[in-house]
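Lay summary. Proteins are chains of building blocks that fold into shapes, and those shapes determine what they do. In this project we predict the shape from the chain. Here is one chain we studied, written as its sequence of building blocks.
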Amino acid sequence: MRYRSFIQAIAAAALFGIATPFSKTLLSELHPAQLAGLLYLGAAVGLFPFVLRRRMAGQVVFPRDIRNRRNLLGAILFGGIIAPVLLLVGLKHAMASSVSMWLNLESVATAILAFFLFREHLGRWTWLGNLGVVVAGVMLSFGEGWAGWIGLLCVGGAALAWGLDNNFTAIIDGISPEDSTFWKGLVAGASNLCIGMLFFEWRLDSAWLWALLLGGASYGASVALYIRAAQGIGATRAQMVFASSPFIGVIMSILWLGETMNTIQVLAALLLAISIALMFLDRHGHSHVHDPTCHDHEHRHDDQHHEHQHEETQPAALHTHVHEHAAEAHVHPHWPDLHHRHPH
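And here is the predicted shape, written in a compact code that computers can read:
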């Protein structure tokens, strides 16, 4: 299951990485608020068939309890409305290749917020890796003058907002990742598009269609895959893998936009690669206690935490239903997933 989660995180990174250079092109025809709205509406449109199929099968597609509704609302506000607009404003001022690498600040924001607000454990290598990401981000801003600093501030704000989003979505249970991404895309996309159309000039053309298609891939499929990965290995570890997306964005910026890499960007890219590698050196395992709980999420029966019985044959694949956990104490290496949010 862990390998599956890592593969999902890699696929999410690739799809999200292509968004920056392609969005740079679309910004020549669309205001940042309009493009942000279309990208997230594209995500909602792409995921609607999956949500509809689950609803017709009698499954829950919207959180029933206050805790999960609150987490979903936080994800929509910070990750769907605030973050993409800040990112696209920064992209208008700076090179797409630099913006792509600045997006690694999201891993720093996710880790720090996870540590202070969401009780995730961070080892010394993760802290050192996050420091390297910050230093690399500052290095990138020096080569672009004031535009670089404006871009860095905007992308840094987007990273903070997405960091909150990542931690909120990692602890949502009771609905599937596709469901939460759909609601985020629908509500946030409609909100930003309305703002963009009410306060800025607009015209309907082919750029709208391309923005919707890009949103379906980079903000729909990508985000759904990331959420599944975060629920399997925790928000911080999933973000470490997802941090490879900026490098994909850099490559596409060179191929698609014809941008070139200067010496500072090359050095920053090397520092980023080393910093991400350092984060993978962390290992975590100790005696811990699970309190009794009842919840609903995707799971399988070979992960030491789902030993409940089914009336029929025990399913071997991933499946979803309401189930209970008895109190348990044991020792094993673990990640800060839905079952390991204990204090340290």
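What the prediction tells us: The chain has two domains: 2-286, 287-333.
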